């Protein structure tokens, strides 16, 4: 339950949208649920707000003046110190959802959306991120000449290069290394990483697996680390050592 009496402990949400009516409506909904809400009208305003005070989660519109939401999402997710991102958009094309998820967004909400859906999505993303932070205390995972530090949201490949991971990639890789050599269905992966029930059409895991494979250097045509388990989902094939 959110603490609504002590502002210093309330979850801070940054709403980035150039539509004043939508920003104010979303902020009112959030504040009614006990969240602290801040507004930004574009990318420049967003960076200024983040430099002044860190947010716990960002609601980011796609159609923004200047730098669009997709590019801002890419920049945010490239920095492991940035909060998780939920994309907001009026576009309902599958390709737009895929692009957002490929760039590292933690979730995607299509406008118009209801209060219950918005709050449920925020809570689900925050549960996943916080659960991952708690699990990260377990330390260092090693596999296939690589190492993974969930607490720092980064991995080190066999060449010694440090590769930053988004919150979604961190949670997905953490799920795999904690379940090595066990076939995991898409629904199971969604449950473990997203903290919410999936739908038969939710293909976001495929997008996240594709991005994670690239960072692992795993050939998408003939993957050796994260193999597709036909009829099931995916299987992490490596032996994993923990420290």
TrEMBL record:
Xref: InterPro entries: CheY-like_superfamily (IPR011006), OmpR/PhoB-type_DNA-bd (IPR001867), Sig_transdc_resp-reg_C-effctor (IPR016032), Sig_transdc_resp-reg_receiver (IPR001789), WalR-like (IPR039420), WH-like_DNA-bd_sf (IPR036388)
GO-annotated cellular components: cytosol; protein-DNA complex
GO function terms (MF aspect): phosphorelay response regulator activity; transcription cis-regulatory region binding
DNA-binding region: 138-238
GO terms under biological process: regulation of DNA-templated transcription
Keyword set, alphabetical order: DNA-binding, Phosphoprotein, Transcription, Transcription regulation, Two-component regulatory system
Highest taxon, organism lineage: Bacteria
Domain OmpR/PhoB-type as annotated: residue spans: 138-238
Start and end residues of each Response regulatory domain: 12-126
Family annotation (Gene3D superfamilies): 3.40.50.2300, 6.10.250.690, Winged helix-like DNA-binding domain superfamily/Winged helix DNA-binding domain
Coiled coil: none
SUPFAM superfamilies in the record: C-terminal effector domain of the bipartite response regulators, CheY-like
4-aspartylphosphate PTM positions: 61
Cross-referenced PANTHER family: DNA-BINDING DUAL TRANSCRIPTIONAL REGULATOR OMPR (PTHR48111:SF4), REGULATOR OF RPOS (PTHR48111)
Protein name: Two-component system response regulator
Organism expressing this protein natively: Paraglaciecola hydrolytica
Classification lineage: Bacteria, Pseudomonadati, Pseudomonadota, Gammaproteobacteria, Alteromonadales
């Amino acid at each position: 339950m959110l603490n609504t009496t002590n502002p210093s402990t309330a979850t801070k949400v940054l709403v980035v949208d150039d539509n004043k009516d939508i920003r104010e409506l979303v902020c009112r909904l959030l504040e009614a649920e006990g969240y602290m809400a801040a507004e930004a009208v574009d990318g420049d305003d967003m960076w200024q707000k983040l430099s002044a005070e860190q947010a716990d989660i960002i609601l980011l519109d796609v159609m923004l003046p200047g730098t669009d939401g997709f590019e801002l999402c890419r920049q945010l997710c490239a920095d492991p110190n940035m909060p998780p991102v939920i994309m907001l958009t009026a576009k309902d094309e599958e390709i737009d959802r895929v692009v957002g998820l490929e760039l590292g967004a933690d979730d995607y909400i299509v406008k118009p959306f209801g209060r219950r859906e918005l709050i449920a999505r925020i809570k689900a993303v925050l549960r996943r991120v916080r659960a991952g932070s708690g699990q990260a205390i377990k330390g260092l995972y090693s596999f296939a000449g690589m190492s993974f530090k969930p607490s720092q949201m980064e991995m080190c490949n066999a060449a010694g290069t440090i590769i930053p991971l988004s919150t979604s990639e961190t949670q997905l890789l953490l799920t795999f290394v904690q379940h090595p050599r066990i076939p995991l269905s898409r629904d199971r992966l969604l449950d473990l990483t997203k903290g919410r029930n999936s739908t038969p059409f939710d293909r976001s895991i495929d997008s996240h697996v594709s991005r994670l494979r690239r960072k692992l250097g795993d050939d998408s045509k003939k993957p050796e680390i994260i193999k597709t388990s036909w009829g099931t989902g995916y299987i992490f094939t490596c032996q994993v050592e923990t420290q």
